[in-house]
Specification:
The complex is a heterodimer. Chain A has helices at 2-27, 33-43, 52-65, 89-113, and strands at residues 31-32, 68-74, 81-87. In chain A, strands 1-3-2 form a three-stranded antiparallel beta sheet. Chain A starts with a helix and ends in a 5-residue tail after the last helix. Chain A is α+β, with helices and mostly antiparallel strands. Chain B is α+β, with helices and mostly antiparallel strands. Chain B contains 26 helices and 23 strands. The two termini of chain B are 46 Å apart. The chains are: A alpha+beta, B alpha+beta. Chains A and B meet through helix 3 and strand 3 of A and helix 1 and helix 3 of B.
Chain lengths: 118, 867
């Protein structure tokens, strides 16, 4: 029971940031769910392991808000269809907003944690 | 998002997940993991698909709706699985709701909103009282009426005279009741016509407005009746309108304008409406000076010294029924309470049984709120089903009431229209739902405090079951038993009353006995001698009919006539009240009333208005207990003979009579009451303008009306004859019918209540046995005797029934006074109470037998294994 709560805590903390990470990933170009997860995992050196349980809800949440769109397309190197997500104009703007928010939060936390001695 | 869209999205999500899963698998295979392991590893890495779907659905925002549907489906399945339990609950609720709503709708229609007239609750009869307990209705001539209408104290007044006129345009004239009303009457009532229009001050004197029932009866509801002519007592009236069904003022067939007349011997009754906010006392005081002036002008229409008293129209109409209806309401509320208690017991018992299931659900990950929501849904579903069925029962109930009271027109005012009362329906459904919900959710609420393991174990630690629950069950059962006793006692009382009435000694023979009413047309036979000669002719013509054994002039009992003062000069304590009846000499033989002493006067003596009288046994007993009344003198009405335009007085009538005989008693204060002292005098003393002819027939009198009309026609062609009423009908319609109705109703309620109580006992017993199976197994294994087991099992119900009986009998005795005041029956009769308790105990025993037997036949090995 205790492990479940720790994971739950982790998920809650990341929910807001997860949206931001997904939008950032999509800035490079369209991708499907699996690719997004793998990309984040690789870029953080396996630190952030993507739980599919959080990824799909996040994607659908972003789609509902109009920050991404989705379409079923055939992958270039396979003869199978995948659901590709793309960033919209509104999504681009949202990314900028969230990025600045995150930076401000990080600064505030840093000032508390490591105060500069006068 | 519509549900088909949800399905599409869901399918897409599945596809998405599926394709990504395959990718994951591929990657793992590329890394070198063998094929079947790869798929499992992929799934593991992927995570819980079901959970993913749920969380995505959450993101879509439809999750709450999904959960609701899930709850409903699950609840429905649960209820269907336990058919017997669900059926009993739903039925109990529906019966309680249906009965309560029906009865309350009736009460609302009768007590609270019976009249369609404007300001009906402020309409009054103006009664004048002097020393007599019986009042005079205010009667004024047209000049006086014109004054009182303008009085600032009153919000309008009408004058009315109810006449009996003959419909003379048919071969055998029909007798109609005609309400002659002042020109402003319809404006006063404020009820618009159904068809055509009503008369107003601008109309002439020869217009008529028909009542709804007369229009239906006589003209079959044809709309072309407007403009046609109606002939009443050989005068033509133009029909100008039809009244709606609810307008039934004095129950007249036709309404015509009251002709103005200043003849003081032709007054009309006056009814008025008081202003809103004025009290009766204020208005009485304000009217007294004006009435005193009128009394001086027309002393014949007023008692000598009088006081004014206003009586609202609904007080007169409801009269004795108010108490009856209130008792009915209380009983049916008790029934609803019983139903709710029954449902509560069942739900609680079942809740306890499901503790293991709930524990399991908690273990599997359901949150407490989710479980509570599920139970709530079940309880709500049950309550709504009960409510829905209850609405159907209520609709049927109202229709049933209509059917039941049709042969009893006197039981409710004719203007009352009984319809389903919506607020009460909602209230009943609300109460029932609340009960269902509270008791359904109760086990979940208690579980929040329970340890998980204890719940799953099913109570290993406490072998004997939880004492808290047992106390609740005992209390609920006791409440049921107490209420049932009250209902049974009420029913028993009314049944006994009915028995009494059925076997009451009548003092006359009602079989093959009937009477018809005849009324003279206005102005016919306008002097005393002519009138009594004419009456005798009619009586004789009817008596000669081959199907008639004998005919007499006089009213059929049981009847209630106002009493008259009497004084007996020869006695020291010789004054009081008697009921004076005017009859022809054949009356006693026709009705079969035995003559105990002396003789009856002859027809010759009648024709000469010889002042002879007969007294009944009750009178003889009161005034001459030890001496012979024959030859004694008595004086009626203080020696004053009050005649008027319709009532002629025999020449030389000074109301002094000589007693010549004694006859047996008949019910003259209502059926079942002790006979009042009565005096019989020849009808020729003061012949009214209408009379009853009572006939004893050879066979069933019901079909004889036509023959009798023919007999009357042979004497005078224009004489209208009223309806034939048999003695049996009168008995039924008056008291027997009412008592029968009451006892049927109460008995039905009592039986229902009894069924609830017995059902409750049975449920609790079965549940207790099931709950304590392990404990009972242990006891049997340790050597307990059968008797011991039975005693153990029935202990709860025994306590409950005893407690309930005690409370029930106690409240019965306490409320006995109130009950007796309202229904004339006695609830405190000890034999009846014992009988009631006996029935209840038998029922309780019968209900406990099956579970108790089951308990004693437990195989200890099985019982201990049971889980």
């Amino acid at each position: 029971m205790s492990t479940m709560t720790k994971q739950q805590q982790k998920a809650n903390l990341l929910q807001g940031t997860l949206d931001m990470l997904v939008l950032r990933t999509l800035l490079y170009g369209p991708a499907h769910g699996h690719q997004i997860g793998k990309h984040i995992q690789r870029t953080t050196n396996d630190f952030l392991q993507m739980q599919h349980g959080s990824l799909y809800p996040a994607l659908h949440r972003l789609e509902r808000r109009g920050w991404v769109t989705s379409k079923w397309e055939t992958a270039p190197d396979r003869n199978r269809e995948f659901k590709y997500y793309r960033l919209t104009e509104a999504g681009r703007k949202q990314l900028v907003v969230e990025e600045s928010e995150w930076k401000r939060m990080a600064e505030a936390v840093a000032r508390v944690m490591w105060p500069v001695t006068e | 998002m519509r549900w088909w869209q949800i399905r599409k999205r869901d399918a897409e999500l599945e596809r998405e997940i599926e394709s990504d899963l395959e990718l994951e698998e591929e990657e793992l295979r590329e890394r070198g993991i063998p094929i079947n392991e790869a798929s499992y590893a992929a799934k593991r890495a992927f995570g819980n698909r079901g959970l993913i779907r749920e969380q995505t659905h959450e993101a879509w925002g439809i999750a709450p709706l999904e959960r609701l549907f899930q709850d409903i489906r699950f609840a429905f399945r649960q209820l269907v699985r336990n058919k017997r339990f669900s059926a009993i609950c739903v039925l109990a609720l529906a019966l309680g709701i249906g009965a309560e709503t029906t009865i309350y709708s009736v009460i609302h229609a009768v007590l609270i909103d019976p009249y369609p007239y404007r300001g009906a609750m402020r309409m009054v009869h103006i009664h004048l009282y002097d020393k007599d307990p019986a009042p005079y209705d205010l009667a004024l001539d047209s000049a006086q009426f014109a004054q009182i209408v303008k009085s600032p104290v009153l919000d309008g007044a009408i004058a009315e005279d109810v006449y009996t006129m003959g419909l003379t345009d048919s071969e055998l004239p029909e007798q109609l009741q005609v309400g002659r009303m002042s020109q402003n009457a319809f404006d006063y009532f404020g009820v618009p016509a159904l068809l055509g229009r009503e008369f107003s001050p601008s109309d002439g004197a020869h217009v008529a407005v028909l009542s709804y029932h007369f229009w239906m009866l006589h003209f079959a509801g044809r709309p072309d009746v407007i403009g046609r002519s109606l002939q009443l007592d050989r005068q033509e009236f133009e029909i100008i309108g039809i009244l709606p069904q609810r307008f039934a003022w004095t129950g007249s067939d036709v309404y015509v304008p009251l002709p103005k007349s200043s003849d003081p011997r032709r007054p009309a009754n006056v009814y008025a409406r008081i202003h809103a906010g004025a009290t009766d006392a204020e208005v009485e005081q304000a009217l007294t000076p004006m009435l005193n002036v009128f009394a001086k002008e027309t002393p014949a229409n007023f008692p000598q010294h009088f006081k004014v008293h206003l009586v609202h129209i609904n007080e007169i109409a409801i009269g004795r029924f108010q108490g009856f209806l209130v008792i009915l309401f209380l009983s049916v509320t008790a029934l609803l309470a019983l139903a709710c208690v029954n449902v509560a017991i069942l739900l609680l018992a079942r809740g306890e049984t499901r503790r293991a299931e709930i524990g399991m659900r908690k273990v599997l990950g359901a949150s407490a709120s989710r479980i509570a929501r599920g139970l709530l849904t079940e309880a709500l579903l049950l309550s709504l089903a009960g409510g829905g069925l209850g609405i159907l029962f209520a609709l049927g109930g109202v229709r049933l009431v209509h059917l039941l009271i049709q042969p009893l027109p006197s039981i409710l005012p004719s203007e009352a229209s009984i319809a389903l009362n919506l607020p009460v329906l909602l209230f009943s459904v609300g109460i029932a739902s609340l009960t269902g919900v509270l008791c359904g959710v109760w086990p979940a609420l208690r579980l929040c405090r329970t340890e998980l393991r204890q719940a799953v174990d099913g109570g290993t630690h406490k072998l004997a079951g939880r004492s808290g629950t047992r106390r609740i069950h005992t209390a609920l059962l006791a409440a049921q038993v107490a209420l049932t006793i009250l209902l049974l006692a009420g029913s028993g009382a009314t049944v006994r009353k009915l028995e009494q009435l059925l076997h009451a000694s009548l003092g006359y023979q009602p079989r093959n006995l009937a009477s018809v009413n005849l009324v003279l047309s206005d102005g016919a036979h306008n002097n005393w001698a002519d009138r009594i000669h004419y009456y005798e002719q009619i009586r004789d013509a009817i008596a000669r009919d081959p199907d008639v054994i004998s005919a007499a002039i006089g009213h059929l009992p049981p009847l209630i006539i106002d009493s008259t003062p009497v004084s007996i000069p020869g006695l020291k304590v010789g004054s009081g009240q008697v009921i004076a009846q005017q009859v022809s000499p054949e009356y006693f033989s026709t009705l079969g009333i035995p003559l105990l002493r002396g003789r009856v006067w002859t027809s010759v003596e009648t024709a000469h208005a010889v002042r002879l009288a007969l007294v009944n046994e009750a009178m003889r007993h009161r005034y001459w207990p030890n001496s012979n009344p024959i030859g004694q003198a008595l004086v009626l009405n203080n020696g004053v003979a009050n005649g008027n335009a319709w009532r002629f007085v025999a020449p030389g009538d000074d109301q002094h009579f000589q007693v010549i005989g004694v006859v047996a008693d008949t019910p003259n204060k209502g059926l079942g009451e002790i006979a009042y002292p009565a005096v019989y005098i020849p009808y020729s003393m003061m012949p009214f303008d209408g009379f009853d002819v009572t006939i004893r027939t050879r066979s069933d009198p019901a079909g004889l009306l036509r023959a009798i009309k023919g007999d009357v026609h042979s004497v005078e062609a224009d004489q209208a004859v009223g309806d034939l009423v048999t003695a049996q009908d009168l008995l039924e319609g008056d008291s027997l019918g009412r008592e029968r109705f009451a006892s049927h109703l109460f008995t039905t309620f009592a039986l229902l209540g009894f069924a609830f109580a017995v059902g409750g006992i049975y449920s609790v017993q079965s549940y207790l046995v099931a709950q304590r199976t392990r404990e009972l197994g242990v006891r049997i294994a340790l050597g307990a005797s059968r008797r011991h087991i039975v005693k153990e099992v029935t202990r709860t119900s025994f306590i409950a029934v005893s407690l309930g009986s005690g409370i029930g009998v106690g409240s019965n005795i306490a409320l006995g006074q109130i009950f007796a005041h309202w229904t004339n029956s006695n609830v405190r009769d000890p034999w009846m109470l014992l009988g009631v308790i006996g029935i209840l105990f038998c029922g309780a025993v019968a209900a406990s037998v099956a579970p108790a037997l089951e308990a004693t036949s437990l195989d200890p090995a099985n019982a201990l294994r049971a889980e």
